[in-house]
């Protein structure tokens, strides 16, 4: 079961739970799809797009549960990133965990990430 990840403001996620689905963050609405990262991409995504931002959650999603609305498309340097062209059904979510800032200002990824990925290194 491959997992993909969404980094999200806690309030946006709480709103999604109340609604029963996640419709996306403002950047997702602007781009026309919900941005996700693979495990290999999530640490860099946090550093690049959420540097210094607190009160975030990391949402783990079962990629296979999203069907054909999930597409892997080129982005940063040609890397394939998962994009969802639909609302995210909460039934596809496997976990939601805090993504706190560490003392160094970088996000602290949960223990489920391999050590090299949590440290921002290669897989």
UniProtKB/TrEMBL annotation:
It holds the Pfam family DUF952. This is Uncharacterized protein (DUF952 family). InterPro entries: DUF952.
């Amino acid at each position: 079961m491959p997992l993909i990840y969404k980094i999200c403001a806690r309030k946006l996620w709480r709103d999604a739970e109340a609604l029963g689905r996640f419709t996306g963050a403002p950047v997702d609405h602007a781009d026309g799809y919900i941005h996700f990262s693979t495990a290999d991409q999530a640490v860099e995504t946090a550093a690049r797009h959420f540097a210094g931002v607190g009160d975030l959650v990391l949402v783990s999603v079962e990629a296979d549960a999203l069907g054909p609305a999930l597409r892997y498309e080129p982005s940063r340097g040609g890397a394939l990133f998962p994009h969802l062209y639909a609302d995210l059904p909460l039934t596809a979510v496997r976990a939601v965990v805090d993504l706190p800032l560490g003392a160094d200002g970088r996000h602290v990824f949960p223990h489920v990430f391999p050590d090299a990925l949590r440290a921002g290194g290669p897989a």
